[in-house]
């Protein structure tokens, strides 16, 4: 998450920061924090429903 902040605020890279996980052991706090930094978060389809309420979250099956 710190890397996204550095890319955006220090280096001025405005877009295309993604995070993808292959496991369902990610929690709400991490997803909420990443999406607040405008990071696109890709989550396995079988646990995506748990996180769909967060903006910028997508199932892994969606084309990146």
How would you describe this structure to a colleague?
There is one protein chain. The chain is 34% helix and 16% strand. Helix 3 links the parallel strand 2 and strand 3. The protein has 3 helices and 3 strands. It has one domain. The protein has 64 residues and is of the alpha/beta class. It has a 3-stranded parallel beta sheet.
- Tally the helices: 3
**Total discrete domains:** 1
Count all strands and give the number. Answer: 3
Please identify the structural class as seen in this structure. alpha/beta
Q: In whole angstroms, how far apart are the ends?
A: 20 Å
pLDDT average, as an integer?
85
> N-to-C SSE series?
HEHEHE
Indicate the percent of residues in helices: 25-40%
Largest sheet: 3 strands, parallel
Radius of gyration: 12 Å
What is the 3D form? elongated
Low-confidence stretches: none
Strand content: 15-25%
> How are strands sequenced across the largest beta sheet?
1-2-3
Summarize this structure briefly.
This protein has 64 residues and is α/β, with parallel strands linked by helices. The protein has helices at 2-10, 28-36, 45-48, and strands at residues 18-20, 40-43, 57-59. The chain has 3 helices and 3 strands, in the order H-E-H-E-H-E.
């Amino acid at each position: 998450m710190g890397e996204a902040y550095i890319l955006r605020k220090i280096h001025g890279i405005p877009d295309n920061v993604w995070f993808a996980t292959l496991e369902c052991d990610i929690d709400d706090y991490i997803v909420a924090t990443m999406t607040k930094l405008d990071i696109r978060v890709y989550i396995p389809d079988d646990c995506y429903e748990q996180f769909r309420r967060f903006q910028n979250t997508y199932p892994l099956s969606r084309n990146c």
